[in-house]
Amino acid sequence: MIEAGGELSHLVLLTGGAVVLTMLIKGGMERTVVPPLVGFLVLGAALRWGETQWPGVFEGGGGAIAFLSKLGLVTLLFRVGLKSDITVLAGQLKNASVAWVSNIVLAGLAGYLTTSVFLGQGAIPSLIVAVAFTATSVGVSVKVWEDQNALKSNNGGLLVDLAELDDVTAILLMGLVFAVVPYLQTETAAGALWTVLGWHTLGFLAKLVLFAGGCFVFALFLERPMTRFLQRVEHTPDSTLTIVGIGFVIAALAGQLGFSLAIGAFFAGLTFSRDPQCVNLNASFTPLFDFFSPFFFVGIGFEFEWAVLGPSLGMGLFLALIAVVAKLIANGLPVAWMAGWPSGALIGASMMPRAEIALVVMQKGLHLGKNVVSAQLFGAMIVASAVSCVLAPIVVRGMLRRWPQAQKGPTEEKKHV
C-alpha cells in the first residue's frame, strides 16, 4: 500500500507517464498507416494487464484513467459538434439522403441480426451494437484523402457530409436507446411494455427538444456577443479555454438532466459551430484535444478484460467482417448508383472505420451492467473497431492511387458548402 503522503505524487507519476506514452504513440503511429487510436487502445489494455500483475505499482491509476477518459470523451464529442453545422447538414440532405438512410437502416439491421442471431446475444445488447454499427470514424479515412490531395473533390465532400450525418444520427439514437433500456429490462406484458416505451420515448424526445432549443437560443442570441467579448478581453488561447470550459458546463448540465456527457458535449460543440470566428478558434483548441482525447481510447482499452481475450477475438473478427461489408453495401451501392462504381467503392471503403461514437455507445452499455453489454461483447467491439481502423486506410489509399480525385473549383466548392 502507498502511504497517504506519497499517494498524490504516485498518482502524478502514473498520469505523467501515461501522457508521455500517449504522445510517443501518437508521434510514432502518425508515421504509419495505422491510426494512433489503435495504439491508445492497446496502451489501455496493457495498463490494465499491468494493474492485474502489479497492483501496488498501479494503485490509483485506474481512477485517474477513468477521470481523464471522461474528459477525453467530452473533448471528442465537443469537437464533433464544433465541426458540424445543422444548417449546412440540412442543405446536404438532398445529395446524401439516400446513402445516409441506407446506412442507418442496413448497417443498423446488420449489427442487430449479427449480434442476436449469430452471436446469441439478447435484444438489448443487439440493439446497442446496432446503434454502434451506424456510426463512422471519418477522421481515419479523411487523413488518407488529405494525404492524396483528394478531400476537396466532389467525392471527398460527399464523404465528409455522409460521415457527419451518420455521427449526428448515431449520437441521437444512442440517447434514445439508453433512455428506454431500463424499461426494456423490466418484465412487463408486451402490450403494456410498448405503451411504456412509447410514453418514455416521447418524454425523451420532448426533453431533447427542450435542451436542443435552449442550446439554439444560446447560439442564436448569446454566443456571438459572448465570443466577441471574450476575444476583446482575452488573448486567443485564453478565450478558447473559456469557450471549452463553457462547453464542459453544458455537457455537465446535460448529465444532470439525464442525458449522457456525450450528448451534452456534442450539443455544446454544436452551439458554437455556426459562428465562423468561433470555429477558427479550433486551432487553439487542438492542443487541448491532443492532450485529452487519447485518454478516451486509453480508458476504453483499460476496461478490456484479458480473461475474455480468446472469445472476444473470435467474435470481434466476425463483427469486423460484417461491419465492413455493411458499410460497403449501405453506403457504397447508393453512391455507385448516383456517381458510378469507383465512387461507390471509395465512399463505402472510407466509411468502414468504427471508433469514437461506436466505442462511446459500447462503453455506456458496459457501464449499465454485464447483463446489458458483457465483457466479451465489449472486447469484441474493441477488436472490430481496431480491425476496421487498420484496414480502411490501407484499402482507401490503394483505391485513391488507382482512381485519383479531381479537386473542385472555387465555384463548385461554394455550391457544396
Give unreliable regions as ranges.
Answer: 1-5, 410-417
Query: In sequence order, what are the helices and strands, one letter per element?
Result: HHHHHHHHHHHHHHHHH
Estimated share of beta-strand residues: under 5%
Calculate Rg over CA atoms: 21 Å
Count every helix, treating DSSP H or I runs of 4 or more residues as helices: 17
- Helical percent range? over 70%
**First CA to last CA: what distance?**
58 Å
Query: Helix- and strand-based class?
Result: mainly alpha
Name the shape in a single word. globular
> What is the number of beta strands?
0
Give the mean pLDDT: 86
Note the main sheet: none
Structural features, described:
The chain has helices spanning 4-29, 36-53, 61-82, 86-118, 123-134, 138-147, 154-184, 190-233, 236-256, 261-273, 276-280, 282-302, 309-339, 341-350, 356-367, 375-402, 410-416. 45% of the residues are buried. It is built from 17 helices and no strands. The protein is 82% helix and 0% strand. It is mainly alpha-helical and 417 residues long.
